[in-house]
Protein: Putative phosphoenolpyruvate synthase regulatory protein
Organism: Lampropedia puyangensis
Amino acid sequence: MANRTAYFVSDGTGITAEAFGNAILAQFDLNVRKVRLPFVDTVDKAHQAIRQINHSFELENNKPIVFTTLVNPDVQAIFAQNCKGMVMDMFGSFVRPLELELGAKSHHRIGRFTDISKSKEYSDRMEAINYTLAHDDGQSNTDLASADVILVGVSRSGKTPTSLYLAMQYSMKVANYPLIPEDFERQQLPPALLPLKKKLFGLTIDPERLSEIRNERRPGSRYASLQNCRMEVSEAESMMRRTGVSWLSTTTKSIEEISTTILHELMPERMAGR
Amino acid sequence: MANRTAYFVSDGTGITAEAFGNAILAQFDLNVRKVRLPFVDTVDKAHQAIRQINHSFELENNKPIVFTTLVNPDVQAIFAQNCKGMVMDMFGSFVRPLELELGAKSHHRIGRFTDISKSKEYSDRMEAINYTLAHDDGQSNTDLASADVILVGVSRSGKTPTSLYLAMQYSMKVANYPLIPEDFERQQLPPALLPLKKKLFGLTIDPERLSEIRNERRPGSRYASLQNCRMEVSEAESMMRRTGVSWLSTTTKSIEEISTTILHELMPERMAGR
């Protein structure tokens, strides 16, 4: 496999440049050393970044691949003129055609937070994170009616990371509730959830995988035994089927895929960008 | 302001398409209705997505702006031929030039999770999230030595959301510890942290902003009073200065900016992509 260095250069955090660059690089069989250079927002910092990139070029005798999201035209120009890497100018490539289509100039503003204190978006996000932490693992029934989604599923089916992801990325208030042997005996959802059926979404998981995960935490326990995992998963799935709760299996899904599927099914209106 | 509809179309979750598209759209003064269409991974789903997009075009008499991250060549071709929106083909635009530079073909694989059970990346991420939740707000001193970072700061300075973000996005084990009046009286960091000074990073915040945030939770309390916030922030800052702990002010920063700055300063090697 070929070896290359990839740089993600941004005048902001570089998170978008990195996510996008990684998605592109994943299309190739490459050994890539990856370096993110955030906050390159002055001419000086641009020259410094270019020195580092050009140094890689000299060492490796291969053009570094440089993904940039730069809005400052001076910084852009310095990259265009001096960078010996292969520059993938992500903003330039799309902003110019859009200016033509919209008949408007872009304003070259860096995607940076400036006035957090007045930002409703920011306080909604904080509230969502606090709510979600306080409602993790059935900890609290207080104010369940304010939840955007209530995740249910057996212990270790992926509820906590999914809840936190939805809160962090979509400012959603998420409660999550474990389905436990008592619920299976009663053959009913936890009583606090019955009036909120429309908000429920179930997570399930392959019993073999569940047993593996539980064995990492409590090796050799009844809780982790394959037999018990099979029973719990089967009971949980029939309960969700019976009560008409939508659900998905997390076995082969990333947190991002689980979260996207939940949004898509439960609240398609939230599939709009923030 | 002009009105448009923007679509983010992907054969995966569409998270990257949306993040990138939003960054581009933020360069314009536009009222944008945003729609994410994830999992468009078959010819049928491509035609369905295009029907929806072309319907917007007919209703609005303006080309919808369509950001795509599609790796399947059949699906790409259907978009190129039938979509009446302005298609910003994010993969096509960069993958082809890269194929030339690398002298290699891309393999058109969808960025999707397939074998979670064998993925070390996945289990590291879960472990980081569990660790971080268990070590939120000074809850536990167990295994503090395993932390990648320990955040310190006064109550409500942004430690919890930053910790969760670092765990979720970078699989970092993060502990966070409140600095409380007792610490200020002793004029020392919490004792459990003294041997771990190299892992510490401080968050501070403008006292006026802190008082606002605390007043939302406990209106009119001494805890939230501007006078008390001024005292706590000043004590915390002098303690960090005295003990040589790096720190930043969260007042005008997003969680992403705080996290990027911490990574950049404390563990630059982690600025590499996952």
